[in-house]
Amino acid sequence: MSESGRQRGCTVGIAGFGTVGQAVARILSTDIHPDLRLTHVCNRNIARKKADWVASDVVWTESFDDLVDSPVDVVVELIGGLSPARDWIERALVAGKSVVTANKQVIAQAGSRLMAQAGQHARHLLFEAAVAGGIPIVRALRDGVCGDRLYRIQGVLNGTCNYILTEMEREQLSFAEALADAQRLGYAEADPTADVDGIDAQAKLAILIAVGLGRTVRVEEIPLRSISPIASIDFLYAKRLGCVIRQVAGAELMPDTGGIRAAVHPALVPEMSALGRVGGSQNIVVVDGEFGGETAFSGFGSAGESPIPYSESYRSARVGGALSRPGRCRDRRDRAGQRTDRAGLARHAPRGCRRRARQRSARGASERGTTRVAPTAQRYDELDRLRGQPDGHVRPIRM
Ligand SMILES: NC(=O)c1ccc[n+]([C@@H]2O[C@H](COP(=O)([O-])OP(=O)(O)OC[C@H]3O[C@@H](n4cnc5c(N)ncnc54)[C@H](OP(=O)(O)O)[C@@H]3O)[C@@H](O)[C@H]2O)c1
């Protein structure tokens, strides 16, 4: 980046120089976003983190106070976890910084409170990369389909699980073999619990419920079922039913009570449905609206190579744009709103969607057209037993 370019625009401080933080820094060290200038990097034990490709005038620090006390316009929180990340975000907002974060746990647990704080201080809190990193789904829900009244969200939100399940299906691998492959390729952590048991998708679903369905739920109230009991033979049974197995995160408004029905679990989905066609580490979010019917948004999620840092720096760019030109913030990457071809999915005409949603809710989630609970090893009667299990009922907490 030229010196003149580096002096313009808004200043950015990164907290957390790990996988995502370094990728964001790399993007900010190019000419892609000339309005953004990386000025601070904060991480514990900072000496071992210093990189020679970062501009020489960037301040490296171990103290978050240095970011809070500095004139940076935007703090990008990428340390992960609940603490001290939540506290750091609050302190940055109170100090008059806008914040960009990829932290799904903090946003799922405390998003509405932090948004209120951002509002009080007239600052931005953006968290696009916290859900389905490569898909601008938060913006799509807030802006793209905001004219509709959404009543259902279903998604494949964890790329690691999707990679494992599609490899099990394609290569007829056991769960352990597919997981080992995913770990070797860097798609899965050494401890894969958060992914395979659904904890990661649970937090993402809570965020989508808040943004898309307008309800705040307690994350821990969303029931989970792990994909780890799935065996390769289950895919043969699934195929006979014209289905594949996916980790599905789903939530639906219950029109009669105003409550939310939600769960994250392995599910049978029709092979040719939008959820069924998502392979490898890709993510998809399918929303149903009262007027627009079904709309799907797909792309790489958290296990992809580049979308997360792209999304992060893009969000930073957007904050930067909003700060320097209030009211004229343009989204040059607005590719939201791609319609599904609906092949294989239950068709919803715009009219009568609400009535049918009510009927479906009354019948129970296990009989819904697009997903059914997956069988465990080798037994169709097990499938029947699982079908009888109700999905979780999550009481909404009024905002
Ligand atoms: N990786 C992905 O594909 C992905 C996708 C979507 C969202 N995210 C989210 O992005 C965030 C960052 O993920 P990541 O994969 O980049 O994690 P990471 O590689 O573990 O990086 C975290 C960085 O923050 C530092 N850090 C952690 N706690 C700290 C503390 N208390 N004080 C100072 N520094 C601290 C770590 O330092 P050490 O080196 O000392 O540990 C590390 O450098 C998380 O919220 C994650 O959920 C990640």
> What is the total domain count?
2
CATH H-tier superfamily of the largest domain: Dihydrodipicolinate Reductase, domain 2
In the CATH scheme, the class of the largest domain would be Alpha Beta
- Class inferred from helices and paired strands: alpha/beta
In this entry the ligands are:
NADP nicotinamide-adenine-dinucleotide phosphate
The radius of gyration computed from the alpha-carbon positions, rounded to a whole number of angstroms, is 22 Å
Count of beta strands? 13
Number of helices: 14
Helix content: 25-40%
CATH topology of the largest domain: Dihydrodipicolinate Reductase, domain 2
Q: How far is the first residue's CA from the last residue's CA?
A: 44 Å
CA-based shape:
globular
Major sheet description: 7 strands, antiparallel
β content, as a range? 15-25%
Q: Give the SSE order as H and E letters.
A: HEHEEHEHEHEHEHHHHHEEEEHHEHE
CATH architecture of the largest domain: 2-Layer Sandwich
Rounded mean pLDDT is: 81
* Unreliable spans: 1-6, 323-393, 395-399
